[in-house]
Structures are given as C-alpha cells and as structure tokens.
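Researcher: Next sequence.
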Amino acid sequence: MTTTLSAIKARLVHCYSSGSANANRSAFSFFLLPLLVPFSSIAAHSSPIIYQPAAPSISVAPTLFSFIGHPATAPRRHRQSYTTTTNFSIQSSRNFRDLPLKMSPNVDHVVNNPPKRAKLVPHPPSTKTIGTHSGTFQADEALGVWLLRQLPLYRRSPVVRSRDPSVLQSCDIVLDVGGIYDHESRKYDHHQRDYDERFDPKIKYDENNRAVKAERCTKLSASGLIYRHYGKEVIRQYYPESTEDVLDLAYVKMYDSFMEAIDAIDTGVEPVPPREGQAPVQLQYVDKTGLSSRVGRLNPRWNEIDEITEKSPDPDARFEVASEMCGQDFLGMLTHIVESDLPARSFVEEAVKSRFEVDSSGEIIRLASGGLPWRGHLYDLEHEYGITDPLIKYVLYTDQAGMWRIQAVTVEGKGFENRLSLPKEWRGVRDEDLEKVAGIEGCTFCHASGFIGGNKSFEGVLEMARKALVNGKK
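Model: Next structure:
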C-alpha cells in the first residue's frame, strides 16, 4: 500500500510540476492536492518566491470538480451565463442588516428557479503581482489573495511571499505585511499600533425592541480590508445580475456569517466576551474544525520531510492550497446566502404573518416548504413586526421524506437553549410508545434533548405543538 501510494504521489507531483501540463496541474491543484498535502509536499517550482497558478480547464475530469464547485469547472447547474437572473427584489427597511425580501407572486417559479452562481469569464493570467508575507501563513492572507484573484484585474495573478520591503515594493498590491493601510496605494496591512478599522456596525435591538447600532467586536484583518474594498465586486462576479439591494444585503450577510470570524480569530478576539466583575468564562470544549484551524494545519510541520524530495515541503505551494481552500469555503457560504437564505425570507415572513391561522396562540408557525433556513429570518421578523409577548415557540415543516417535524425555536443569540423544549416525558421516545405517552396518533419520535420531534401528519404535529405549549405553561 505504501509503495502504491508513493507511486501515485510521484506521478501526480510529476504532472503538477510539468509546466506544459496545465490541465493536469489544474486538476491536481483544486482537487487532488488537498488530499495529499497531509502526506507530502509539491515538487519545487521554477521560482522559490513567485507562484503562478495554472489556468483551470473545464475539460479535465469535470466530475471531480462537481464535488468542490470550482467556478471554472462547476457542474451544469452552476454553469450560468451572464444572463442569469435573480428572481427576487428587496424593499427598503429600517434594518440594513436584514432587509425584508419580497418574492415573486409565483412561488413555484421562485422555488424551482433560484438565482444561480455564474461561471467566471475566462481571463489570461494577470500581469499584476500580489504581495504578502513569507513564512507561516494563516487564513487571513490566504483568503485575501483568493478574493483578489476573483477580480478581472488580478485573475490568476502570481503571488510574491516575502518580508523584504524592496521585494514588496515591486508588487502591484500588498496585504498583511508592510505596516501600511492605504487604499489609494493598494497596501492593506492591519498590524499598525494605531490601527482601528472595523466593518459597518451591526444592528441590534434593545429591551424596548428599538434598533440600535453596535460596534463590531473585531478590527478588520487584511482579508477584512480586502473584503471591505473589493467584496461587493467579488460577489458581483458570481451573481452579475443581482440588484444593488441584493448585492448590499449579500455583502453584509457574508461579513456577518463568514468574514467576521476570520477577522476575529486573526486579531485575537475571544468568542465569549468577558463580563465586568465576573470570572472569565471557561470554554467547555475547543473547536479545531474551522477554516482558520484547517488552514493552519496546511503549514509544513516543524519536523516534516517529504518522502519524495527528502526536503522540507514547499510552503509557497502549500499556501496555494490554503488559498483555494479558503475560496471554496467562501463560495459555499455565498451560494447558501444568495441561492437559499435570501429567497427563504419571504416564506418565513408569510408564515409569521399567518401564524394565528395555524393556532390562536400565535406561538406556532407553519412553513410552506421544508428544509429552508428560517431561524435568522424569524428573529429579525419578530423584531420588525414587534412580536415580543408571546414569542414564537415552535416551527412546523416537512422533511425530505415527507414527515412533519416540530422544532423548538432557540433563544436568540444562543446555540442550543430553547424558548420552550418539548415535554420531558416525550424525549427519547419513539413511534407507538410516543403515541401512548403523548396521547397523539402518528407520533414518530422526539429527540432526547427535546428540540425536535416528528409526526406522520400535519394534524398530528400541530397537536404535538399545542400540547407542548400547554405543558410548558403549567
């Protein structure tokens, strides 16, 4: 097995390092290399400093790329021309962070024809050079480089990784090194003593449900600065027919959902804020599965020797893998926001407005379509419609198999604490046993934590919600 793996790796590295084999290099870079970097490095390139990415080719193993969605080799559902249309519009709102969406009256059309990510227009390699620091890399500059490369001006630009000011001076744009932030001169560092650049304030609500601006918890990292100045244009590259309102909303949501965490981790902001006069909160577990951690593990280990070259792995080649990894995560979140999250809001809004038709309590809503993202929209809509007492407790919807689900709404700002969990006596019980305990026909299950349950019919799941409400008020 070891011999076979070594032979495979040797052949792939040969394909990758061959200057004429652009197609092989593309496939290796974007799919196979991430699988091999934990075991070996890439063969040395022609230059120890400058790395020129190869042109992606849609003719090379397109089925491989269907798993990762690289824009140049995306599966058919992503190969959209610039006639791609965005099938929803936005009306103004007092909350710029989550503007209410108004869907087309033809709901089936919206469900079956959501906006689709466009294929990037092919460009020859840019002659512009991107500069960043050498040595250990982080998600910050790896993501920043990827963002720049999505723009026509920097498409497939070579990257110079150095800390030598004379070398960086020759670069067309520099990030995360140099000690200067100046948009006019294309320098984007964040390590200066007096630096305090932050993204636009968040909108939060006070105890009287009034919208107030709240300063961000973190300063912008280098990729945050790149996103501030070029983020909208990056989004426009993939969704060129989006309206300005949709573009603005996606831009803010991408920062809230993706970029802010990159900034906070890179600038050393604790995820749990300290409370004045109280002891620091101790995390119960540590998550090392996030993008920043995964990028960090791509750095050559202190004692790592490549079994083919018998040398330390090439950090510049690993940086390219890290940058592509960041890009795929960015695109995954962007696709979710534009193609799933934004179109879903209108469905949630309709469910909120018609909640009294489902139950006179107003604490139960029924979604017209299962599987759509509803939680964030629900919180925002409660604020916008002034829903405070009572808050919505349960959401009813169908799963992919057609089973009706009842899900408890979590406390806003909490990950697992429910506003009202399902009754304790139901939890962990299934099928006929649950029918007997609950006294409701068609019950299928109740999760052991009480956050979700199921029934074969809408009437059954609605009865579960009603009984859970009564039980919770005892």
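Model: The two ends are 64 Å apart (CA to CA). The CA atoms of residues 107 and 347 lie 9 Å apart.
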